[in-house]
Amino acid sequence: MNHGSQLIAASIAYLTSAVLYASLVLGAHPERTRLRLSIARFAGLAGIFLHTASIGTRCLVTHHTPVSTPPDLMSAIGWSVAIAYLILDTLRRERSLAALGALAFSVSFLCVFCSSVLRLALPSPGPSVAELDSSVVSLHVIAVMLAFAFLILAVASASIYLFEHSLLKRKKIVGGLFSRLPPLATLDALSLTMISHAFPLLTIGCIAGTIRAVASHLPLADSHTLLSVATWAILGIYLMMRMYSIGTSVRANYLLIAALLAAMLTYLAPNQIHHFS
Q: Mind listing the pLDDT tens digit for each residue in 63-75?
């Protein structure tokens, strides 16, 4: 299989896993719960395997890192989200995490899909940039990418928390959907765990980026840098809120959503320093 075929197969596996996890949450065919959970996990694992093979094949062909173009970076983010959820699911093995699995593999599928659209939209297969193959820049990009993946999982957990909290406020807590969602305390702890990984990774990424900019005599105050610092600051405030029990969990979870929006703007914002061509 070539790179494109592997990526298509990976996206199908991700989508299959997301749909099966979602069916567990929605309660369809409860008599086949264990079978569907096993198939969902297998499909997710198959997607990761195929996606890894696709990334490896493309690196062998282009002789560049897997984050050398915008489509490659988008694809790598989806891969990182899937890997992060796989690690979480392996450690916890809880059926109640099905809702998080549905969101995680949906994000992975969308990242692969968007990367394919970006690749088709480029006038050429996409020029790779030599600077992205340097160790410092690679550390910067990979650390930020992994931090983004952990942030996505944290926001997925926070979103489920807020949805479940709204059900609780409306007293829709007897059986049904509410009973198939993770406990609020579990979701809260998961978000904190994910951010506890994302924050130091983002710190490393920002430091590596600063070192590279200073060494290259580049200005630091571009839109990406400022938005990255804003994201880093929001995550720092979130950790302080949780560490010192400041505010409510609901407010803290809304803060995570704000951090994700800032991170998305970091990727989308036009700039002069961060570019791929």
A: 666 766 778 888 9
